[in-house]
Sequence to fold (429 residues):
Amino acid sequence: MDKYVINGGHRLEGRIHIGGAKNAAVAIIPATILAGDVCRLENLPNISDVNVISKILQELGAKVTRINKSTLEIDPRHINTYEAQHDLVKNMRASYYLLGALLGRFGKARVPMPGGCYFGVRPIDLHLKGFEALGAKAKVASGGMVQLDSEKLIGSHIYLDVVSVGATINIILAAVKARGLTVLENAAREPHIVDLANFLNSMGADIRGAGTDVIKIRGVESLGGATYSIIPDQIEAGTYMAAAAATGGDVLIENVTPKHLESITTKLVELGAKVEEFDDAVRVSRTQPLLKCNVKTMPHPGFPTDMQPQLAVLLAVGNGTSIVTEGVWDNRFQYVDELRKMGANASVNGKIAIFEGVKKLTGAPVRATDLRAGAAMIIAALIAEGTTEIEQIYHIERGYEDIVEKLRAVGADIKKIEDYSADTDSMSS
Ligand code: EPZ
Fold:
């Protein structure tokens, strides 16, 4: 088990370059299953989730070639199975995109129920209802294998009764080569949905309205290949914006789409930070004391649930009482116990957390309970007095490329200790 050791108290200053969006990449890589030719994907983040989903495609028979750190070429033409049996599939939430992509290509799919970060129940009922509306029979067999079978997929009118990113993407994947028109209402509007639609359209798909809540997909006979560059990661950018504001720093965050960051910018400004927007960069600084604010997470364009834990760290040391309402997941406050170990004064009641701002946090041994919770622990450690050790950092490395290097380059005192339990074992034996 690896861990991060962070000595707090250093303000961040300098430039950070943002990588490609994880949640776009983990949808677009499976989408290549639908391609009729080689796809070259650029600006991919160098994170374990991308490595895992690429490996799964290879197991299915795709030829995956790494061109450089952020570019892969994927030739899906030799995929000859609709069964994804590999153990890797079960451990990754985004492996559910294999369902839509394999169904779209073969009319059938066999994929185990997905794993991933645990924030309470994470059902896929809306995905399955969408597939059924397109003419597939869906069944979850004993052992958790999801089975989809269809004679012919036919476009349909589908209304999502809960706004779901995953269901929106999966329905697009399954509908893109179905016969006729699919109209998807109450669709999710996240930037990575637009990115997926742009990627598929660049291969010859006919998808309109992505980024609004009505998406129209007219099925096409076949798709070609494409060269495509993934959008910048909104949440990676937001995390460094929060870190810059928390440490009273001054950081230029480059390779971003400022429009995607507006809800985050608004909250940081409310808390007393200054945010300047440029064409493809934002500069975040703070000289005044941190204030307080209330926040409710919502589907895009609301404040993203994936930024909730990172923002909460600022509220924990803000001046006054702040209320956080989690509007997407049932249980996304596990990190609050970890923050309390560092001196935060916070309470949780269901989907609401209340933070009474304290003067300072103090370094402590803590865990990354999930990906974004881990990012929050890093921000807390950067502003804490003393040393913080963060365990379970594999969660963080699923979604943040080169996080240690990026933070060190702007003045953080952070290092990764590899396999410390092995060291401890060997010392004790
Ligand atoms: C995506 O998860 C992201 N993951 C999550 O990011 C993110 O938190 C979430 O969207 C919300 O923005 C990926 O893109 C890989 P949903 P997803 O379907 O698609 C309910 C991160 O940290 N729901 O939009 O699984 C569900 O319970 C990760 O990067 C159903 O009821 O989320 C939740 O309350 C973590 N039935 C709500 O919808 C369904 O069939 C939104 O979930 C599907 C979802």
